[in-house]
Design brief:
Layout: E1 12-22, E2 29-36, E3 41-46, E4 57-65, E5 68-78, E6 84-96, E7 102-113, E8 118-130
């Protein structure tokens, strides 16, 4: 694990709206849940099932310094038998709002096939709101 500067202002669950701005999914929107743990670990959870019925999950790391945050995580997608077929590497950088109730981020993802080939590259913007807030 890399060294992280943790800040309790980011710790906890966040509901996020992902908007794809470049790549094969350009124009699509997708809701996701991000949970930032105190030890610099981020957990990602899709809210929409994949074509195979899987509800994708990811895990990675995050850092924050002042109001600037960075994160990355990997999501492994499996076929119906459970065999891994794709890995999605997600990364982003953003800014936490002064009230610590929202953050905006921009970043991308690369989708790799089981043969390590790049299947797709995306760019996306994210707007997140602390879960449980109005």
């Amino acid at each position: 694990m890399t060294t992280t500067l943790t800040d309790s202002a980011l710790v906890g669950p966040w509901r996020a709206q992902l908007t794809f701005t470049k790549g094969p999914r350009e124009g699509e929107r997708e809701p996701v849940m991000l949970t930032f743990l105190r030890d610099g670990v981020i957990v990602h959870a899709d809210e929409i099932h994949a074509d195979n019925g899987q509800l994708p999950r990811g895990i990675g790391e995050w850092t924050i310094q002042d109001d600037r945050l960075s994160y990355w995580f990997n999501v492994v997608l499996n076929d119906p038998t459970g065999r891994p077929t794709m890995v999605v590497y997600v990364h982003g950088d953003g800014t936490l709002a002064p009230d610590a109730r929202t953050f905006m981020a921009s970043g991308g993802s690369e989708v790799y096939g089981s043969g390590r080939q790049v299947l797709a590259t995306h760019h996306a913007d994210l707007l997140a709101t602390r879960a449980g807030t109005a």
